[in-house]
């Protein structure tokens, strides 16, 4: 039974607010809800139209923004005023985009290499967050129209490899569209929820290993998940951001062109013919998902394609996805036979040959009963229902793709939350000052696997100020990291003796692509040996420098009590240590630290004894 509430202030009846699930896709987006009566997830559609809203935005001359099917028409007519694939730009810098070698018909603005990209439209600039917000606003408006109730709360899905910046950008886009984004969840997790895998798993105490194979129009993603006690964990992800059903279409066009003796140069000159063939190619591909031969005409060109020919054409493309699957399994430390469940996502998994190949690869039948275009949104709706308090059994979990830590003495990376830690996650550690009377401490937050922060990626920096004057080593600064369920990091620093504290939310300005994450991981492996050596040297150097400083202080205070010989020996040992530090020789530094300690130990003990004796004088025990 649906609950009805009365607003005491206005006396009006209030319907229980619906939380929607949104799949914000590269090519298409859609909204789903849990049907209030049937309790089943459904994708929202108007009348008999498709539930899919093309993620395309057209800006007309008058400054109006048009989103969806209508905007898609302008991709051909007015490409410079029509934006597609805005999701690919989320949280990215101009440099990132250049490295990807993306060819987009619209203008991307280079306003500094480490700035986030913007798109120029007339005399205005739009950020990917704004662009995505236009799509979300359209989805919100559609949902409100269909449901006849305001929609203000949503769960939005993102690819599992999206980093902090990209998740935050998605959340910001929601906010800008007037949506309270209650949760950002991973697309493969959402797909698994749509198949009810979490519920099926609850009866056992065994973890379940799931592969989510997502082949859309332009992108391919494979994710390996582990499910235990209704909790999902992303073990690994892989994919290709430029591989999908569109490549199937291109292969068919090339095949037809070759059969008709049309050169590719000719095709690139005659865009009308190329476009006509592309449309027919997609139609052929879709037709062959349920038939054996496709026959049609384009002007006087006869177009024939058999299912067998299609399979031969797409085989190399599917082989590429298999390479990604192998890598994802390897990263998760698994083999294909360990996977118990395979979930199919994305329109291109409708091609029977794709299903066969995936099924053969994993050696089991694939889950394909739910509409592969809607499955992610349906899962988001299920999660939205959980958040609305209707289903309390599921808890979602993700992992951090790279380690998070802070810079410590000598530019070393001190990891607080290691890579692959479960999200939400919390960690804290105590640090102290290096100099007497140090009034502030710089907290620099880094992400990455290398031992030196200079090789990692800086996320944020702040100063803990007003630390009361104390000798070096006495203040206790506790640095805390907290990653919330959306993968957003909060960093806090508190000096425990005085209680002063400061905290920041880390919204990284720079986005990382999955390729970059992969590169950072690879680098850490390639450089592991030299990193370990460098870390050992840096630690030795820091220890040596600190010993020199403290000995210096000790000598200043206690010069009068030391013998001349002790003074000379100490000075010589200090000089030798200083030399070893200058030479960057780790073993020599350790040796000289020992030597200096050996020289100072006898008099340090003597002075200590005298001090204690002095303090005890006159006191009775
Ligand atoms: P998505 O990005 O998930 O919406 O997937 C879109 C891709 O799926 C496009 O390349 C479509 O041509 C393709 N697609 C849609 N329906 C079918 C079908 N029945 N058989 C094969 N491919 C399809």
Question: Nutshell version of this structure?
Answer:
The chain has 621 residues and is α+β, with helices and mostly antiparallel strands. 39% of the residues lie in helices and 25% in strands.
What does this 3D model show about the protein?
It is elongated and about 105 Å long. Strands 3, 4, 5, 6, 13 and 14 form a six-stranded mixed β-sheet that branches. Strands 20-15-16-17-21 form a five-stranded mixed β-sheet, with helices on both faces. It has a four-stranded antiparallel β-sheet with strand order 24-23-27-28. Residues 1-14 and 393-397 have low confidence and may be disordered. It has four domains: 15-190, 2-Layer Sandwich (Nucleotidyltransferase, domain 5); 245-312, ATPase, substrate binding domain, subdomain 4 (Actin, Chain A, domain 4), CATH 3.90.640.10; 404-518, Substrate Binding Domain Of DNAk, Chain A, domain 1 (Sandwich), CATH 2.60.34.10; 530-616, Substrate Binding Domain Of Dnak, Chain:A, Domain 2, CATH 1.20.1270.10. Strand 29 and strand 30 form a beta hairpin. With 621 residues, the protein is an alpha+beta fold. It is built from 17 helices and 31 strands. The chain starts with a strand and ends in a 5-residue tail after the last helix. Adenosine monophosphate (AMP) is lined by residues 27-28, 216-217, 244-246, 282, 285-286, 289, 346-348, 350-351, 373.
